[in-house]
Each structure stands twice: as C-alpha cells, then as structure tokens.
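Deliverable D5.2: sample structural annotation.
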Amino acid sequence: IGALIGWRLSHALLEQSMFLILRRHWFLHDAGRGLIVAGLWPLAQIYPQGYLFGHGQLMPALSDFLSDWLESPVDLGALLRHGLDLSIEQFWLAETIIAACGLTGAMLLLLVLLRPSAPRVRLFFGLLLLTLAFKSLASALLFAPSNAFAWITPGAEGGLLFGSAMLFGLTFAPPVAQRRIAAAMLAIALLIVNIIPPNPYFVATMQTWIQGKFLNFNGAAHFLSLFWPYLAIWFLLHHTHRKKRAGV
C-alpha cells in the first residue's frame, strides 16, 4: 500500500514540486554539482573556526601529522610566519579579509549557477542568513547558548560589510569573470588562514569544548570545514567550464 501511495504521489511531489519548478526557473540546467557545493557551505560552518568563513586551515592538521610521524614537534605555520606576531587590530584586519574573501567566493559560486531571471538578491541573503544561522546554532549547541553569537567580532562584521560591497559590484558581471574571481577570493582566504598565527581567544575557547559522544559527527564536520574551499575551487576551475565556453 505504501508503495502504491508513493507511486501516486511521486508525480505531484517530485515531478511537479515547487522546488523542482524553482530549480528549473532559477538555476542553469547543469547546475547540479555546483548546487551541491553551494549547499555544503552552510554545513561547513558547524565545526568551530578561528575566523568567520576561515575554512581550509590545513596547517595545524599537517603539523600534528608530521609531529607524530617524526616524533618531534613540527609547526608548519610558524615556519611560514618566520616569527611574525600580530596585534589585536591586525587579527581583526586578517579576519576582515578572510571573511570578506570567503563570503565573496561562496556567493559568486552561487551566482554562476543562476539564470538571468533568478532573484539574485533574495537568494544571496537567503543563503547568507541560512549560513549564519547554522554558525550560531552550532556555537550554541557545541559550547553554550551564550556563545551563539560569539563569532560576531569587529573583524567578522567588517568582512560581512566589505564582502557584501564587493558582491554588489560583481552581481551582474559575466559568469566567466565571476568564476575566476570566486576562485581567487577563496585562494586568498586559504593563504591567509593558513599562515596567520592561532587566535589566542579561539584557542582558549576550544580548550573548554567537551566533544562527548559526538566524535564521529565532529570528525565529519571538521573534514567538511577543512576541504570545502578546495572542493569549491576545484568546481570553479573544472575543465567542463572551458569546454562550455569553447562550444558557445
């Protein structure tokens, strides 16, 4: 009986669903892979990060791996920084750049998937609000309800402001330019987040985190946070985009 009901409802709920209609009207025909990458961006906020949209911080993980392998302390970030220390204001500036570049790269990835008739501004704010909601909810659940908005720092606020300003000027740029700029913005954020010193306030906060029974979930969330920007850059620079331009 359940199979029969499912078969009868599949046409109305799947083939003629509102989501599928909006998918056809708002997004390009071959936007499937890009939608998966864009949809993973809010989920990448679940694992705690030292900086807003500061994904892809591989240096600590690589340093821990090399330290265990060589049986001696290894800090790749310190080797790249050459003893550089940042003041509080410089930390804020670095987070502003990271957040602005991360926001611009992720939103431009969404924009290259849209048809000209799509409500770009509404989709932009919808994805941004969803992403920040995931960030706040995760902070409240993993630490304490009072930490829900601890990510709102002067650097994060500046990054959201400057990132939105850059997107305002790039919203209607050619898709080829949007794709290249998105990859460049994500690469800049990756570079900075991997060479900047650890945020002492974030390190102190992480020391209070008790992971409990959710080690597998936290591991998956950490993996997504680490590799999302690399996945996004791979998609943005994939050779299929060049083939499409050549065929036009």
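Annotation notes: The mean pLDDT is 84. The longest helix spans residues 88-111.
The annotation will be released with the project's public dataset once the embargo ends.
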